[in-house]
């Protein structure tokens, strides 16, 4: 067994599975046939002008050529799609598991704006699925961005943190899937089947009862928030809520789990859970998701600074508890990890009819187009369910920085020590400018760090890769 583990540790953590020729050849034949027909069509259209309406004919031919060109561009990525397979067991054999694991930390970003349009219960389920992922707890941090500065989001997140103390150990003890309570309890399956643990039935019933009580508390908060008091919201200590004006308020950061020492009901450590609402000032157009993500990047760099970032929308949840490990099979693989910028997971949707008559599952996009783009090393980022390499977002990583020259007397007195004049190459000038940018970024992070103490308070399997 030891020899097998050592062997697995040096094996690749993932591999590409080409699509079978029996499937690709007919599809490629259809593409070629369509190209031939398209060419014959354009030949006919161009060689048979309509003299009585030449302008209209010319306009229609130009539009048809443009549409045909767009179609050709859409077909090329589908020419060579690929599937990818991960080996989570090899990842564990190489980096270990548990407290002494060498797995890299991951920061989860969840973004939300209006809790009345994006129900807090859905956001809570997303957060709970993150806190319960199958990954070392000290390596997981969840940051929730509240771009609406809503007290309802803050209070519901506090309730979520308390419920997580019961939900997380329950999921890990019985290997629950999916690890979001709303969808787990709504499954119409025989939960008594294949469950060996004798206390499972009793604990599941108790957990379902606790979740129903949790839903009642969240819904009560939502009902309370339907009408805003004239004087604005007030916190428990009597001070006004800083986010009463959602477009003019200071930055707010609150650590609910992790650093506060909160543990689950079994006495085990829980992942970090951090509430963040970025500063807003009138006159600035900073009310979009990209700005909120940038704020989370800066805040997380100060608090945890995990080398990898996985972002989710508030209405998406992790339906595979090992999804983070699968992403690490690409990110932490010495042979391919250095060339990977991000791993994009496909989105899977619940509550849609099985026949998908309205194409709401985006099957063609995720299972055909994205795999085709992956075959030419260019899958696109779809805005959620994506694991980023933090260094790729920064554009310049400290580990690759050359050592800065040490200061000496000669550097301040040009006359005492003659120096040979050396012309800087364009590459060196670019490197120096990037180093200045990095030093400025580090200074800004330190400024944020000094201010932190003054603050008030989407389905994931079958990833696609993108090169840096």
UniProtKB/TrEMBL annotation:
InterPro entries, per database record: Cellulose_synth, Nucleotide-diphossugar_trans
Family recorded in the similarity comment: Belongs to the glycosyltransferase 2 family. Plant cellulose synthase subfamily.
Catalytic activity line of the entry: [(1->4)-beta-D-glucosyl](n) + UDP-alpha-D-glucose = [(1->4)-beta-D-glucosyl](n+1) + UDP + H(+)
Primary localisation category: membrane
GO molecular function ontology, one term from the record: cellulose synthase (UDP-forming) activity
EC number: 2.4.1.12
Natural source organism: Aegilops tauschii subsp. strangulata (Goatgrass)
Pathway: Glycan metabolism; plant cellulose biosynthesis
Membrane-spanning parts: 25-42, 54-73
Gene Ontology annotations of biological process type: cell wall organization; cellulose biosynthetic process; plant-type secondary cell wall biogenesis
Binding site for UDP-alpha-D-glucose: 111, 117-118, 147, 288
Keywords for the protein's UniProt record, in alphabetical order: Cell membrane, Cell wall biogenesis/degradation, Cellulose biosynthesis, Coiled coil, Glycosyltransferase, Manganese, Membrane, Metal-binding, Transferase, Transmembrane, Transmembrane helix, Zinc, Zinc-finger
Pfam family, one: Cellulose_synt
Cofactor(s) needed: Mn(2+); Zn(2+)
Gene3D superfamilies in the record: Spore Coat Polysaccharide Biosynthesis Protein SpsA, Chain A
Bilayer topology annotation: Multi-pass membrane protein
Name of the protein: cellulose synthase (UDP-forming)
GO CC terms: plasma membrane
Any coiled-coil regions, as ranges: none
Residues the entry annotates as binding Mn(2+): 289, 313
Superkingdom as given in the UniProt entry: Eukaryota
